[in-house]
């Protein structure tokens, strides 16, 4: 099993896992649980999307991003298959941190807010063969790594997420009716301005809140500060530039709003356990840990 996630921080003592795709790590990974060997049931949090599928009894669990996951509530899905993926592979709004996924139709279900972080959806019997075949196709592409495998695996993932969105149509409608317009506005500001100098006060001014009030609201609803989300958006873009371009580290730093390349390197190493050059060289897979559900 490829090691694709790692603990990047703790939130009130609960470990938070992230999926750091790099030039070596695939954008999507399938993990299969052996009978009686269900992954750890310790409480944990994902900053990326996770699905857990089992043909018998025909269910898929949607693991909420940013929520404390009670995996014990899903113990019946042992012998299933977990689908872990880097949302940035889907492009567009998916490159933004999870509170902004409300603008992305395929990621919106991962903000469901159900207790224990788990949304159970029943898969119609006539769709089970599709789910089996699509999960297996992702697995095959990632294992073989033939030319274009990243694009092929992402295409199969997209098909799976389209079917998931249809299964979750009622949940998504409910979410849209009770959406968080303030959080949406905050992350629109971050996405527009992360490549420039950007402070808590700047974001507050743009959304019409005092810095203190904004800081309290964002931390209460997401578990992280505005500055942490700005840094996360910058690091997401930095990873993309390092993987997809030959730009110098200094130029990457400048393009994500950090004028000092040395400071950028320190921030990157603190968040990823390696320097930007090591990341670009494909050493990212050495620092991973086995993913939780």
TrEMBL record:
Domain HTH araC/xylS-type: 184-282
Residue numbers spanned by region Disordered: 274-293
Xref: PROSITE patterns: HTH_ARAC_FAMILY_1 (PS00041), HTH_ARAC_FAMILY_2 (PS01124)
Domain of life assignment: Bacteria
Keyword DNA-binding tagged: yes
Keywords, sorted A to Z: DNA-binding, Transcription, Transcription regulation
Single GO MF descriptor: sequence-specific DNA binding
Protein name: HTH-type transcriptional activator RhaR
């Amino acid at each position: 099993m490829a090691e694709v996630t790692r603990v990047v921080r703790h939130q009130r003592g609960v470990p938070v896992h992230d999926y750091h795709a790099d030039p070596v790590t695939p954008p999507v990974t399938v993990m299969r649980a052996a009978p009686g060997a269900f992954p750890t049931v310790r409480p944990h949090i994902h900053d990326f999307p996770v699905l857990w599928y089992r043909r018998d009894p025909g269910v898929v669990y949607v693991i909420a991003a940013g929520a404390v996951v009670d995996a014990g509530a899903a113990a019946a899905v042992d012998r299933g298959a977990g689908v872990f993926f880097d949302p940035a592979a889907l492009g567009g709004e998916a490159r933004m941190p999870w509170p902004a996924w409300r603008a992305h139709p395929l990621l919106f279900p991962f903000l469901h807010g159900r207790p224990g972080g788990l949304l159970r959806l029943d898969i119609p019997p006539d769709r089970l063969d599709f789910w089996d075949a699509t999960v297996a196709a992702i697995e095959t592409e990632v294992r073989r790594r033939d030319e274009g495998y990243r694009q092929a695996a992402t295409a199969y993932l997209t098909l799976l997420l389209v079917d998931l969105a249809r299964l979750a149509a009622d949940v998504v409608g409910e979410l849209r009716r009770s959406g968080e317009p303030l959080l949406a506005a905050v992350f629109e500001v971050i996405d527009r301005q992360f490549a420039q100098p950007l402070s808590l006060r700047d974001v507050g001014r743009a959304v019409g809140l005092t810095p203190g009030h904004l800081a309290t609201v964002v931390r209460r609803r997401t578990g992280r500060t505005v500055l942490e989300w700005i840094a996360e958006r910058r690091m997401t873009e930095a990873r993309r530039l390092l993987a997809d371009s030959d730009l110098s580290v200094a130029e990457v730093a400048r393009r994500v709003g950090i004028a000092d390349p040395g400071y950028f390197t320190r921030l990157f190493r603190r968040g990823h356990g390696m320097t930007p050059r090591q990341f670009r060289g494909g050493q990212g897979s050495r620092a991973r840990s086995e993913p939780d559900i």
